[in-house]
Structure formats: C-alpha cells, structure tokens
Amino acid sequence: MARPITLRQVEIFKAFVEHGTVSRAAEILNISQPSASKALMHFETDCALRLFERKKSRLLPTPEAMRLYAEVDRIFAGIRQIENAITSIRSGDQGGISMGVLPALADAFVERVTTEFRVLNRSLVFSFRSATSRWISEHVLSRELDIGLINAQIDDPLLAAEPVFECPLVCVMPNGHPLAARDVILPDDLHGVPYVALDSDVYFGNRAAKIFERYKVKPQVVVSAATSHTVRHFVATGYGVSLLHPLFIVGVEDRVVVRPFEPQTSIGLLLCFARNTKKEERIAEFAQEIKVVGERLARTIAEGI
Predict the structure, then answer these.
(1) How far, in Å, are 197, 211, 256 from residue 191 at the CA level?
(2) 183 and 260: one domain?
(3) pTM of the predicted model, to two decimals?
(4) pLDDT confidence bin for 87, thresholds 50/70/90
(5) H helical segments located in 226-272
(6) In the predicted model, what is the mean pLDDT of residues 249-266?
(7) What are φ and ψ of residue 97, in 5° steps?
(8) Which of 25, 102, 154, 163 is least surrounded, with the fewest CB atoms within 10 Å of its CB?
(9) Taken in order 18, 48, 78, 70, is the CA torsion positive or negative?
(10) Is residue 237, in this structure, part of any structural domain at all?
C-alpha cells in the first residue's frame, strides 16, 4: 500500500521547482541536501508519477511535475491568504496595512517593498493577500484591504486608481536559450518556438495573443497558465519563452535571460485604494514606497538586458 504524501514533501517539492536546484531548496528550508533529495525521491514514489528527470547529475522537473506544481502553488496561495487574514485580525486596533497583489508580485516584490518601508515604520503590522484583480478591487472597496496592485481597469467612484509601472513587455527565456544570442526579439522569432502562455482571458495573456494574431505568428504553446507567477517558473525551469511585464520576473532574475521585444507593447499596473479612508496618509506613504521600489526594480531588469 502506498504511503500517504506528507506536507513536508510537498514543501520541499515546491521549493525545488521555484528555486531550480535541490541544494537551493534545502538551503531555503534550512535542511540538509541529502534530506531534501531523499524527501523528493519518496514524494515521487508515493505519488506514483514520474516527477523528475536526471540529466548530468542534475534533477529536473517533468511536465507532470509542473502540472502538479501549478496545483500546489494554488493551494499554498490559499493558505497564505488564511495566514494573512489571521494576522490582520490579530492586529486589530494596533494599526497596520493590508495589501492585495497579483500572485507574481506576492513574494520577492512584496518582500522588498515591505523591507524598505519598515525601516521607518517598524511598529506597523503588514498583511498581504495574492488574488485576481477583481477579487482585490472588491476587497479594497469593502475596506477589507487598504491598497491593491492590480492589472485590470476599474470603474468605481469610491475607488482611487493610479496607473503605475508602465513598461514594455519583455521576452523572458531560460538561461542558455538560443534566442538569448539576439539583442532584440521580434514576433517572427517566436514562430514555432516553445512558448509558455498566460491564459487568453488574463489581461497580459490577451495582449500577447493579439500581438501574435496581428503578425500571424504561432508560437508552439507547451504550457498555458492562469498567473504570471506560474508562467515565470515554467520558463525558469526550461519549458520555453514568454512575454511578461518586467516586474513579474523579480525573484527569478538569476534563472532567466531577458531581451527587449519589438514592437514595443507597453502595459502597466494600477494602484488602487478606497477614497476617504482613515488611513489615507499612511496608505499614501506606502503607495509611494511601492512606486519607488517598483520603478527601481523594473529599471534594474531593463538595464540588465
């Protein structure tokens, strides 16, 4: 009888996919590399799936592993939302800031913004929730969230929305990809090339799909995902290239190559918050920090091309 999988196995599997190597996953989770390797082997056996390929003594996730990762990531995002809700409830009247962000911005980007803002605001309690733009805007409107960073236009007089981070889409690819030899990527360069797509009903995915339709280009879609967060990990793992907003690459910069894409297709995000809130001054300060850090990170990625 197969052993039941454990939460620890799932955590190690998730860390391995997100960080690219067993040694890095072990370091992140503060365990030994042999322990991480053993847990991954047991996880593969217990799942009765072929989750890993061995190439030159290196472990690589299979397509089945990446499909499983997408589901694992969705579940962990839900757990993070519960943890954030608990933090928010505990903070009560102590004061704090709650923010909703797209999944691709919910780890490295949020950590860097918060770290810098806390230098002068150490007493604040922060809580974050990753979700869709619609969910975030609804919860900002109901005052359950103080601020939101979204990608969809909203039309409500009770919400203030400020465009931020207007940047051209960039082409992101795994390290060592043949297209990395080019200075600029054109639509024709992507014809027939393995491509990791955002679902067409997602704003950024729809914009990319329209570019391909306009130039009569058909990339070879090998994976389609609902979030940029999942897309970037598929790209970093070696499945193919994609078109993304530069900020969505934060956190995997060392595992991918970024090149300009032409024709330039500028897309941005929206910073939204409820009007006439009691926290207006604090929210404005945090919003300014988000803009400063975000613009610097986007510029750093662009200059590193």
Answers:
(1) 13, 12, 20
(2) yes
(3) 0.69
(4) low
(5) 228-237
(6) 90
(7) -130, 130
(8) 163
(9) positive
(10) yes
